[in-house]
Amino acid sequence: AQYLHDDCPWCCFIENCIKLPICSCAEVLHDSVYCVNGDYFYDFKLQNGTQYNVTKIQLTSPDAPITFVPQIFPFSSSIPPGGMFPAKTAQILGGAAGMPFTIRIKLFSGNFECCYLELNHTLPSCDTAQSCDNKGTNFWLMFNGNAGTPQTLTLNIVSETNTSGNVIYDGVTYPFVVSPGVASEVMIPASASVHTSDVIDDKGIHVTSQNEVTVYGLNFSMFSTGGYLGLPTEMFGTDYFVLSYKNNIALSGSQFGIVACENNTFLTITPSATTGTRTAGIPYNIILNAGETYELTNYDFNSDLTGTHITASHPIAVFGSAQTAKITNSTDHIVEMLPPTSAYGKHFFTVPLTAMTGDTWRFMGSQNGTTITINPGGSTAMVDAGQFIEIPLPVQSEILSDKPILACQYQIFNPFMMLLPSVNQFLKDYTVFTPGIDFTFIDIVAPDAVVNSLTLDGGTVSFTAIGNGYSGASVSVVPGTHKLTAALPFGCNTYGFSRYSSYGYPGGMSCAVLNNPFSLNLNTFIQGRYNDVTNLMAADTIEVDIRNSIAPYWLVETSRGYLNDSGKCSAKFYNAVDGVDYYVVLKHRNSVETWSKSPGQRFSGGVLNFDFLSSSQSYGNNLGLIDSSPLRYGLFSGDVNQDGVINLTDILWILNDSQNFESGVSDLNGDGVTNLTDLTIAYNNAINFGRMIRP
User: Fold this and answer.
1) What is the spatial distance between Cα 483 and Cα 215, in angstroms, rounded to a whole number?
2) Are the C-beta atoms of 619 and 609 separated by less than 8 Å?
3) How far apart, in whole angstroms, are the C-alpha atoms of residue 122 and residue 100?
4) How far apart, in whole angstroms, are the C-alpha atoms of residue 581 and residue 598?
5) How far apart are CA 444 and CA 495, in angstroms?
6) Which of helix, strand or coil describes residue 343?
7) Which residues contact 608 (CB under 8 A, 6 or more apart)?
8) CB 658 within 8 Å of CB 678
9) Beta-sheet pairing, 265-270 with 284-288
10) Residue 35: predicted pLDDT
11) Taking the alpha carbons of 506, 508, 513, 517 in that order, is the dihedral positive or negative?
């Protein structure tokens, strides 16, 4: 029976009434599916319809193997008819680029499902890199407060070509001319670093040039010095987390600074520590015009503004700093120009500081539930957005994370902070400036394939292996400009110190490949889901891992892909490197984990094509025959509990589900029903000792 209620049709079956989704449910004001560093996200904003007080929203997909995190968005107070829903964001898990799918947005009043909307989307490609790096022609910079006096503020500008430009501060223009290999030094009035906390001022420094330049800022005082690598406006973003250091002594001054490059830039700042009238965890807003600056400084003992979240309506520059940080015995000014969260990375290699008393590291997350792995040793830690771990790393190390993080090295004696670019931010050449200070070094991380050909000022460099295809070096250099080149991208940082002062900053970094992952193109089938009549399979998602080819076979990265009915899948990786041996590992929710053959497989030009269609392509010949014409092999199905072996436990699981008319992971052939067909597949594999085989 059908009847009308409030102009919306309902269907009733005996005692159950179901509201049909054809009335005015809600209006979609905005919805967008996009990719950030290989992860898919869905943004949406709704206006409520005219019928219901809505207490929660649920996201599902009725036609695709994807899930949303979070899936349910509850509201502290109900959204009345005609009311505006707050904008929401969910991560999309599963699927791969090019896969069409439907998003179903369900609206609830209590536990009653009011109605739903359905929106059609296609997962976009993540190969949308911007071509940019630290070299540019337009910069907005600032200097943060420094406890040392007197201060000498300089911008050191270098270029690979002859060029000229202007530096404008406080209405005064300072022209400069640069020749290749020679730095141009521009002096900035010391007043540029003097700010009143929580007060907007007009102390932005605007640098423009005819051709691309690299800019380094140096705030020098005899007993308190800090420097940073300037980033051009094309590397600015709208979402930042502050990185600083805690206040260990009076007047330490954990702080951050902001420069706007557009008028009417609306900012929301959520401080991580109560600072003056600004309460920890409570957002507040300010508006900046182009060239205006804002600094917030905290002097409370043990307080730290690290983790402060800043969002903006237009791109901005953010600086993390401390007026004078104390990590062990000495104090010094620390500062870095911070990248936005969109420019964080997942794969890092560290080199200990040379001729110094030690260092410590901070690794800060940009997303909740981020796992950080440190090799050698394989120790792991979990952080949420804006949270960090701090750890000493006395040996060269590899850092991996499943979500983008920011990495920073701190010198503990005469402190400085120095950001570490991720592997995906490496460049093939650098022109680096090192200020005139007693001891100066350049640390380099490079792929093993170029360690014998990489040059520093035309000479070779001696490297020590780190592992997983990379080596590190630390080279003593004289103050001035230095040129580094190699055939493959590599990373470099420069730092220096004297008895009382120090500085450190990256030699450069790229944002060009952060969203340009390596592609692993697979061809494989899942035994239970394959139809030997049609020569096709029921499509599904699959997990693909790449692991180091040398024991203990460290996990390098995990990706998820969409395995279509032809057995083809493209998985994306951000930590992979050309010319390095990997094991490819396939994991499916009810199949046996399967490793690729030995020796390891290699990416070339960012691409690896590999198939698991013959048994010899797998480690231990661990694939099952699924078709004789054409001859094909596939992953063994039936490992329902994912313990690496198909046995009685899996058979009983499938049997119980079939008797209780349940499905899910026990549905081996993907027909939506668990029955005798699935039981037979598992039984045959169990009596033939189906199991995982790995090195």
Assistant:
1) 15
2) no
3) 4
4) 10
5) 12
6) helix
7) 518, 519, 520, 521, 576, 582, 584, 601, 602
8) yes
9) antiparallel
10) 65
11) negative
Which two three-digit tokens encode residue 309?
A: 């979240």
DSSP string across 613-643: -SGGGBGGG--EEEEETTEEEEBPB--TT-S
Name the residue type at position 227: G
Cβ atoms 444, 484 nearer than 8 A: yes
Taking only Cα atoms into account, the Rg of the chain, rounded to an integer number of angstroms, comes to 28
CA-to-CA distance for 370 and 363, rounded, in angstroms? 11
Give the Cα-Cα-Cα angle 453, 455, 456 (nearest 5 degrees): 160
| Identity of residue 107 | L
Q: Exposure of 480 by Cβ count < 10 A (0-12 exposed, 13-18 middle, 19+ buried)?
A: middle
- Separation of alpha carbons 608 and 638, rounded Å: 29
DSSP string, 257-305: EEEESSTTEEEEEE-SS-BTTBPTT--EEEEE-TT-EEEEEE-STT---
Strands, DSSP E only, in 110-235?
Answer: 112-122, 136-141, 152-158, 163-169, 172-178, 184-188, 199-201, 205-220, 226-229
CB atoms within 10 A of CB 287: 14
What's the CA gap between 25 and 295, in Å, rounded?
Answer: 45
Cβ neighbors of 524 (< 8 A, separation 6 or more) are 542, 563, 567, 569, 586, 611, 612, 613, 634, 635
- Which stretch of DSSP H or E encloses residue 656? helix 648-659
Highest mean pLDDT among 141-150, 243-252, 658-667: 141-150
Under 8 Å between Cβ of 558 and 650 = no
Helix axes 676-687, 648-659, angle to 10 degrees: 170
Residue 454 corresponds to which tokens in the numbers above?
Answer: 């990489």
Please name every residue paired with 48 in a beta bridge, in sequence order, or none if there are none: 26
Classify residue 688 by its DSSP letter: T
- Which residue, chain included where needed, has tokens 């093993």? 448
Q: What secondary structure letter does DSSP report for 512?
A: T
Q: Express each pLDDT in 412-456 by its tens digit.
A: 888 899 999 998 888 889 999 998 888 899 999 998 888 999 999
Q: Which amino acid is at 105?
A: I
534 is written with which tokens? 């049609």
Q: How many CB atoms neighbour CB 148 within 10 A?
A: 20
Mean predicted lDDT score pLDDT of the chain = 87
As given in the structure block, the two tokens for residue 370 are: 């981020």
Q: Encoding tokens for residue 241?
A: 């987390």
